[in-house]
Specification:
The protein is mostly beta strands. The protein has no helices and nine strands. The strands form three sheets. The chain has a four-stranded antiparallel beta sheet, with no helix packed on it. Strand 7 (90-94) and strand 8 (98-103) form a beta hairpin.
Length: 117
Amino acid sequence: SEEGFSITMEEVNRHEAGKYVCTASNGIGEPSSAMMSIEVEFKPEIVTEETILHTGDGDEAKLVCIVHGHPTPDVRWKRGDHLVASDKHLMTHDGEHRHSLIIRHVAEEDFGEYTCS
């Protein structure tokens, strides 16, 4: 049987995900390496940049949520209980972790509570 070394990671969280390299060397020839990847599944975590955004008529408002999760979560915007759909007035932008809702030319009917989930 083969004997070797191992590493045990306990209470793994999303920050331990990534590529790990094991390198062996005995002074003869070049060292030998093997790479492995660790993926950590975790529930979505959402942080907002601002919880209250002050704006006025005609301004542009940008609401931002920072979202982490694995597998990558779907992000939706709601105003009250209704899903927000993108159009010329309301635009959504999804980055890797940064998700934005942009309200162009804010009007009084746009005021209210928005959530990303």
